[in-house]
Structures are given as C-alpha cells and as structure tokens.
Fold:
Amino acid sequence: MRITRAGREFKACCPFHKEKTPSFTINDAKGFYYCFGCGAKGDVLNFVMKHDNLDFRPAVELLAAEAGMAVPQDAPRDIVREKKQKNLYDLMEDAAQWFTVQLHDPRHGDVLEYVRRVSWIAKRWRSSALVSRRIITMP
Ligand SMILES: [Zn+2]
Structure:
C-alpha cells in the first residue's frame, strides 16, 4: 500500500474497494481514515477490524502486540460481569470506552504513539500480504 502525503493528510489507494486514483485519506493528527470512493471510515482499531476481519478485542490485542504490550485479560470480563443486565449494544459501548481509556492511559503511551504513526496501515498491509502468500504456498 503506497501512502503519499497530501497537505495535512495522507492519501492511498483504498484497501476496501478497487481504484486506481487514491481516494483513501488518513488524518494522522485526528487518527482516522476516510475513503471518498466507498465511504469507508473509522479509526485505527476500526481499520484493523475491517482489514483483518477481526473482532474488537483481537484487533486491540494485535495492535498491542505489534507495539510490544499485552492487553489485561480480566478487565473486559469485569465489565461483562458488571453490565450483565445491560443489552449487547451498551456492553460494546462500555468495552469500547474501556479500551479507549486504556489507549489514552499514559502508562500505555507507546501504544497510542504506535497507533498514531501512519506506518500502521503500511505495516498491516504488508503483513496481510505475507499471510496470504503463506496461505498460497502452503502444501
Ligand atoms: Zn474505498
């Protein structure tokens, strides 16, 4: 995935639809992406979930692992226990908030810094290309 700077943003060909002229923009400062071609948008977590077809937690764990840190195992379960009476939507919202708080915790500053670096897309893109190649060459 070739990323070029365009003013305050970065541009690339969208990984979510076929195109020859880049309409996929990354706002590094605000930490989100938007595609003018297909309307795909979100933050780094959303990108990894969509790009790698992962659920929320595995996506967080993958990002954390790439930044060299572990996601606490018990905290989301505590949330589940607490919010058992709430519906699934509220639960997802709480979990999302929990992860957001964790990401912005100064103790986890390295993750946020990693997340903010634009190289994340190139990295995700490269590793998924490696994975698909590995699948193809598997006996
Ligand atoms: Zn697109």
Notes: The first helix runs from residue 44 to 51. Residues 31 and 55 are 20 Å apart (CA to CA). The chain has six helices and five strands.
